[in-house]
Amino acid sequence: MKNTPHDPVAMLQQLIRCPSVTPAEEGVLTLLQGWLQPAGFRCERLVFTDADTPDVDNLFARIGEGGPHLCFAGHTDVVPQGDEAIWTHPPFAAEIRDGMIYGRGATDMKGSVAAFAAAALDFVREHPKFGGSISFLITNDEEGPAVNGTIKVLDWMRANNQVPDHCLVGEPSCVDHLGDTIKIGRRGSLSFIVQVDGKQGHAAYPHKADNPVPKLARLVDRLASRTLDNGNRHFDPSTLAFTSFDVGNPAGNVIPSRAVAKFNIRFSTEHSFQSLKELVQMEIEAVRKDMGGKWYMRAIEGADAFITEPGDFVQLVAAAVESETGWTPKLSTSGGTSDARFVKDYCPVLEFGPTNATIHQTDERISIEELKQTAKVYRRVLDSYFKV
To answer: Of 95, 98, 184, 331, which one has the greatest count of Cβ atoms within 10 A?
Structure first.
């Protein structure tokens, strides 16, 4: 029994049965700590508070001294389950049917947490003097405001001399099958609210009003038809998507006094927050000069674009993925945002985890085979990283 490998399936089932909907901990970090601490990991529970957001419980665990230091970053919080009546298996029961484990968080991302924990526990048991450090940065705030989670844990790590040399984030990165994708960066996200004020009036007498709708429509057309860039070696072309155009006017014979549009830009490293703000402001000024109106613009910064340039670490993880899955992974920067956007300010970071077909869906699930294979990939990463 002493050398029996840790079972990621049983571990995932236990994690799923903790209903840790953001930001509730519900025993999930205590469970993980209970696995790591007896194996020699030094565990810190870090609770951070903020006046405007809920308190969040986080876990940092490390074994070993000095470098090289590899950190696994992830989250144990999950999105709400929605209407439980339409789940074919209870969302927090972790039932197994036809080789699949069902439950909220099965792929996003308790599956990765269980797989890496199993791999790391087996590794340190077999190589107690492996030379270097392995750590876990686990938050319960990734699916929420992301204010009291990873970003503050990283600040704590820097203040306490715990910054890793490299970081692997366990987000579900694969698309069609395990091994097809590694995320080596992410697009940036910048949202805008643009408002035009005019003068309300009767639709039969438009000359007595100042209609803001054509003005804002002109801006929408200019921005929607603009090519932001043609992409580059690692990024697809940046995109701009309008999400709302609203005048708050229920009447068909009244010219409104205000029009508001909202849009989001997903951008590559060809741009910055500042350059995009200047671009939008330039387009506003062009329409204002031609059509007049009182204009207001608000920009809401989301995440900046970043890239981990392919090098030794990316090659090491890609080789581990290919060895265990048989697939040569695509190096991708697609998708939304993740906590890797915070880690990239501290060390090189990439993301690899299971397929993402059912994340945030009813009947979220992962196959037992895929979960075990993910643990094997992580184990090979550890073997290669520490050259054992």
So the answer is: 184
Q: What whole-number distance in Å separates Cα of residue 157 and Cα of residue 369? A: 35
Q: Are strands 294-303 and 188-197 parallel, antiparallel or unpaired?
A: antiparallel
Residues 138 and 245 in one domain: no
- Tens digits of residue pLDDT in 208-241: 999 999 999 999 999 999 999 999 989 999 999 9
Single-letter code of the amino acid located at 302: G
Give the active site residues.
77, 142
Cα 178-180-185 angle, rounded to 5 deg: 115
Other CB atoms closer than 10 Å to residue 226's CB: what's the count?
A: 11
Q: Are 40 and 77 in contact (CB under 8 A)?
A: no
Global confidence as pTM: 0.89
Residue 1 falls inside a structural domain: no
Q: Are 128 and 202 in a shared domain?
A: no
Tokens linked to 120: 């790391």
Instruction: Please state, as a whole number, how many other Cβ atoms lie within 10 Å of the Cβ of residue 241.
Output: 10
Q: pLDDT category, 388, cuts 50, 70, 90?
A: confident
